[in-house]
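Duplicate of #3305? Posting structure anyway:
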């Protein structure tokens, strides 16, 4: 993903999309129930960390690669192992900005499929095919591990799935793990198109060919780069402009869960990410992402480099994000 600079134009179009679709104002609050509080889920950061380690062990999950095929099989297998309903693998071919034909694989599933009110948890499971931010130019053409940028969001969601296998959530929970998010335009490719739609190809395809009923989704939460050391998650700017009620609800939930320091109630950067295409489809969607690192003012310094490896994954960060999702779902 990358910072998005055409923020005013995009925000206007997204606000219109949400207004013309389901009303965003009360979607998050409407997922609450009046019943007694459910037993608390025990989100296990060690388990989430193990799910990240397993993904990285396959190697870079570049769309269409052998590593991606094996990792996709493993992800689907885990969802089935954890009792998910309607596990669906959507395979398609898309064209990247540079003409590469990518065989992609989006994976979706459901928990409590009978529940009329539902939330969608999503993350991308592919990893960057090149390290265009790598300081050493000789290593920029090599694919990266993507431990944080990709695997961390999937690891947290798979741990949520493991918990939902043991405890039924208070709302329906849909899961979407998308491919080809990170095949966007290289920062050092001056001949390539500057079109921001070069990113999130799997989600763009899914939004046009959904495998889940869009009308039942109250709101969506995207997890991206949610495992970094000492990471904090301010309100991502596009989310805050297009779905402010959902951001309010999630950040208030974070405060109640004791995570106000990790989820500061201030705006961070604007990020071109998978949630943008859900917003365009009329789904109130927000992005939980580390977009205000103190060393860079935006993404972590190892973003799109070979240092995005398991050494930079922090169990405490995973636990913070997981506690918020647990408070939303249980």
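Output from current build:
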């Amino acid at each position: 993903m990358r910072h998005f600079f055409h923020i005013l134009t995009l925000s206007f179009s997204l606000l219109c999309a949400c207004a013309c679709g389901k009303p965003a104002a009360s979607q998050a609050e409407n997922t609450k129930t009046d019943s007694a509080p459910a037993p608390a889920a025990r989100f296990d950061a060690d388990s989430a960390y193990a799910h990240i380690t397993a993904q990285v062990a396959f190697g870079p999950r570049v769309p269409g690669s052998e590593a991606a095929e094996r990792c996709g099989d493993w992800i689907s297998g885990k969802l089935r192992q954890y009792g998910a309903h309607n596990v669906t693998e959507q395979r398609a071919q898309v064209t990247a900005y540079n003409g590469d034909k990518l065989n992609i694989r989006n994976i979706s599933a459901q928990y409590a499929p009978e529940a009329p009110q539902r939330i969608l948890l999503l993350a991308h499971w592919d990893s960057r095919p090149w390290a265009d931010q790598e300081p050493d130019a000789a290593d920029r053409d090599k694919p990266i591990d993507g431990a944080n940028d990709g695997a961390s969001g999937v690891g947290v969601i798979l741990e949520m799935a493991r918990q939902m296998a043991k405890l039924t959530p208070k709302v329906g929970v849909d899961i979407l793990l998308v491919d080809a998010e990170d095949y966007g335009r290289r920062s050092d490719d001056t001949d390539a198109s500057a079109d921001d739609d070069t990113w999130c190809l799997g989600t763009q395809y899914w939004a046009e060919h959904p495998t889940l009923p869009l009308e039942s989704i109250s709101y969506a939460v995207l997890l991206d780069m949610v495992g970094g050391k000492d990471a904090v998650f301010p309100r991502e700017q596009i989310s805050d402009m297009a779905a402010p009620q959902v951001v309010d609800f999630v950040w208030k939930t974070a405060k109640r869960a004791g995570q106000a320091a990790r989820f500061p109630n201030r705006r961070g950067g604007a990020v071109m990410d998978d949630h943008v295409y859900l917003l365009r489809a009329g789904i109130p969607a927000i992005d939980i992402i580390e977009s205000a690192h103190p060393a860079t003012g935006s993404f972590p310094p190892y973003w799109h480099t070979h240092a995005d490896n398991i050494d930079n994954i922090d169990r405490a960060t995973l636990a913070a994000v997981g506690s918020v999702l647990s408070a939303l779902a249980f």
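Confirmed duplicate; merging threads. Residues 14 and 225 are 23 Å apart (CA to CA). Residues 4-9, 19-25, 33-38 have pLDDT under 50 and may be disordered.
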